[in-house]
Amino acid sequence: MMQSADLPDMLAVFPLRQALVLPRSRLPLHIFEPRYLQMLEDALKTPHRLIGMVQPNPVPGDEDKLQMIGCAGRITQFSETEDGRYMVTLTGISRFRVKDEVHGFSPYRRYSVCWKGFQRDLGRSETDEHFDRPTFLDLLRRYLVAQNMSSDWGELQDADDELLVNSLSIILPFEPEERQALLEAPCLKTRRETLVTLIEFALRGGTNEETLQ
Fold first, then answer.
1. SS3 185
2. What is the DSSP string of 2-30?
3. Is the alpha carbon torsion for 112, 109, 59, 115 positive or negative?
4. Could you say which DSSP state residue 208 is in?
5. How far apart are CA 195 and CA 189, in angstroms?
6. How far apart are CA 36 and CA 64, in angstroms?
7. CA distances from 32 to 13, 21, 64, 192 (A)
8. Residue 94: which of 22, 19, 11, 191 has the closest Cα?
């Protein structure tokens, strides 16, 4: 478990659309672009082995703009393929706020970051005492059927609150703005409520009609 003092003031940033990592969750990545292969090699040389995952937020006139909040993932597993690509697993450590871009000779983007306000991310797994699991799993079952998605239902039922909510936030096919809302949720309860809202919205076909029964 990392401490606040271990967190760097600057991070290599991987601006990847749709990718989401959350504290204490895992994100598999397939890295093959030369600049991000260099980023991976450089990160492995640091004591913290952190990479900042941030979603792009392009606007007219600034296609390189990023979302203001990302999450740092620690490289916990990696393997190299015969053709020089890497299969990587990031384990989420803490969210951060994006500050100023650090310019230099690096082929990838680096930013100064602020960790203030996210101290909870470095603690133990969160619980959600108001989590109505049976109702939630019934809603999820209907969503997976509607999306023609399969699941390991036994594993979902056995997962603890945080693992269940965070894993679904990462793997379900939400839009980038929806993923950002899940990332920015201040606590597990809020993330679970946001997740339920997004699932209900998808079941309604993206309309504001009443929730399906």
1. coil
2. --GGGS-SEEEEEE-TT----TT-EEEEE
3. negative
4. -
5. 10
6. 16
7. 16, 19, 20, 33
8. 22
CA distance 62 to 119: 31
Q: How far is CA 115 from CA 76, 91, 163, in A?
A: 21, 17, 23
- Report the C-alpha gap between 181 and 89 in whole angstroms: 23
Q: What is the pLDDT of residues 40-96, one digit of tens each?
A: 999 999 999 999 999 998 788 777 899 999 999 999 999 988 888 899 999 999 999
- The residue assigned the tokens 């740092």 is 72
Q: What is the CA radius of gyration of the chain?
A: 18
The three-class DSSP label of residue 154 is helix
Quick check: 72 and 81 in contact, CB under 8 A?
A: no
Span 88-131, pLDDT tens digits: 999 999 999 999 999 988 999 999 999 999 999 999 999 998 89
Residue 167 burial by Cβ neighbours in a 10 Å radius (0-12, 13-18, 19+)? middle
3-state secondary structure of 86: strand
d(C-alpha 65, C-alpha 56), whole Å: 6
Confidence (pTM): 0.90
Cα 160 from Cα 198, distance rounded (Å)? 21
The SS3 assignment for 53 reads strand
Cα distance between residue 131 and residue 5, in whole Å: 33
Alpha-carbon separation of residue 195 from 121, 183, 186, 200 (angstroms):
19, 11, 13, 9
Euclidean distance between CA atoms 17 and 175, whole angstroms:
9
